[in-house]
Amino acid sequence: MGTIIEDANKEATGSALAQKNPKIVFVLGGPGSGKGTQCANIVEHFGYTHLSAGDLLRAEIKSGSENGTMIQNMIKEGKIVPSEVTVNLLLKAIAENENDKFLIDGFPRNEENRAAFEAVAGIEPEFVLYFDCPVEEMEKRLLSRNQGREDDNIDTIRKRFKVFLESSLPVIEYYSSKDKVRKIDSAKPVGEVFGTVKALFTPGQQTAAS
Ligand code: UP5
Ligand code: MG
């Protein structure tokens, strides 16, 4: 629960957003499935703005915000940060950007995230990209990423996989039941994966992946 002013601000952001009516694609997949890598390619070719929920949360830690320590502890444990925090960061980033098409990477991660975003933003995604990759391949990638992420150690990686299976896959199943999921095999080399992704963003070729 926020203060009255915070709640009013949130409502204002929500309705401003509904007016802007941006096009949103959710980009989901397990830890290390290649979400960030492919989003960078989509931005370059199709002019979307990339919003990684994880990057926004890590920036929030760095900024010394009052939620910083809580977010840091949750990320270290591979847990999902409360929806209110993540939804606010995403809405703010969308509202502050002039673009009208966004890739939202790594969100929604559970049912609560999904329902909170839909309720506050009043927007449904155009479609959901789902990068499907075997756990062994994702583990190998994360262990050799070497970018200093505090959650790229074997203990946290295993916790992240568990949370993905238990909480995030049901969100993908939800969108699948609405025929919104475009599932892509992301165990292949980056260029090959992008070949399939590209077709989905090219008018007239939307049926290239299932
Ligand atoms: N790589 C990529 N594609 C490859 C390919 N095809 N072949 C070979 N190598 C490939 O890729 C990972 C590594 O693999 C890189 O080194 C890359 O070069 C290589 P990347 O594109 O970074 O994969 P990505 O799916 O983005 O992996 P990431 O680790 O970012 O996924 P997570 O979902 O784990 O991380 P995120 O930043 O989204 O979330 C981190 C934490 O934040 C969560 O665990 C959670 O605690 C918290 N969080 C929330 O609480 N709520 C949210 O809404 C979001 C995050
Ligand atoms: Mg990422």
Short description:
By secondary structure, the protein is of the alpha/beta class.
From the structure above, extract its key features.
binds magnesium ion, 210 residues, five-stranded parallel sheet, 9 helices, alpha/beta, 5 strands, Rossmann fold, binds P1-(adenosine-5'-P5-(uridine-5')pentaphosphate
> Mean of the pLDDT scores?
93
Structural class: alpha/beta
**From the coordinates shown, what is the CATH architecture?**
3-Layer(aba) Sandwich
- The number of helical elements comes to 9
* Percent helix: 55-70%
Adjacency order of strands in the biggest sheet = 2-3-1-4-5
What CATH calls the topology is Rossmann fold
Q: How many strands in all?
A: 5
- Give the CATH class: Alpha Beta
Oligomerization state of this entry?
A: single chain
What distance separates the N and C termini?
Answer: 40 Å
Task: Estimate nothing, just give the exact number of structural domains.
Answer: 1
Largest sheet: 5 strands, parallel
Description of the structure:
The model has no long low-confidence stretch (mean pLDDT 93). The relative contact order is 0.18. The longest helix is centred in the last third of the chain and has 24 residues. With 210 residues, this protein is α/β, with parallel strands linked by helices. The protein has a five-stranded parallel β-sheet, sandwiched between helices. It is globular. It has a single domain, classed as Rossmann fold (3-Layer(aba) Sandwich), CATH 3.40.50. The structure holds P1-(adenosine-5'-P5-(uridine-5')pentaphosphate (UP5) and magnesium ion.
